[in-house]
Amino acid sequence: MNRLPAIEGAEPLLLDVADVQLGGYAWWSQRSAPAVLLLHGWGEDASTMAPVAGQVRSRLWHAVSISLRGWPGSTGVDDYGLSAAQDIAGALDWIRAQPRVSSAALLGFSMGGLMASLAAAEQAPGALAGVTVVSAPSDLTAFYRDTAYDGVRRYLDATLQPQQWRDSSPLTHASRLVHPMLVVTGTRDSMTPPAQGGQLAEAAPNAQHMEVDGMDHRPSEAQWERILSVSAQLFGL
Question: Which residues constitute the domain of residue 23?
Fold first, then answer.
């Protein structure tokens, strides 16, 4: 397990969840507030979401960022969604038990958005303040076909079990995504074609689609700020 770097102002975490330990960070508010669990993209870890955590904290919310299983800071083997629901549920249970946490929300970027969707589909109605997914795949077969990045195809070929093309696709579970949901796509995203998010937003019962003109795969600081503002309004935070 590769250690995560120290980040000034962040409390290091190591959560025992199911059969793994999930490493990460917490940034706590001094007042009762919502907590946002941040989930990183493919090839990244909990530290890469630290700038977004800073923007979350500027709203006086709590922020927690974890490395998904098999990625730096966490144990286990990356399985691209097979264990996402149980792992993230364990992290959410821990967050809800912390002092001054009034509610919990999920925010996932790219692969982390897919994992957030899979986990949210298993959370009971009312258990989440909301779910924000940014530049995230929703249909793995179409994603494999349409992404501009061959490295992603090689990764999926090497990682997915046959049933995962369907079972790890959030569109498969869209009817159970009952929480308030913001699905964010960028018009210039060639990693995750915008149609991926558009389909999920149309299929999930309480989803809103936010298309950001000119946004590439990764939002800029200003674009993240817009995403957080719309999330806050949609989730009533």
Answer: 11-235
Q: What is the CATH number of the domain that holds 193?
A: 3.40.50.1820
Q: How confident is the model at residue 234 (pLDDT cuts 50, 70, 90)?
A: very high
Query: Which residues touch 88 (CB under 8 Å, ≥6 apart)?
Result: 37, 39, 106, 115, 116, 119
Model pLDDT for residues 49-102, shown as the tens digit of each residue: 999 999 999 999 999 999 999 999 999 999 998 999 999 999 999 999 999 999
pTM over 0.90: yes
**Strands of the sheet with 11-17, listed across from one edge:** 11-17, 20-27, 62-66, 33-39, 101-109, 130-134, 181-186, 207-212
Residue 6 in domain: no
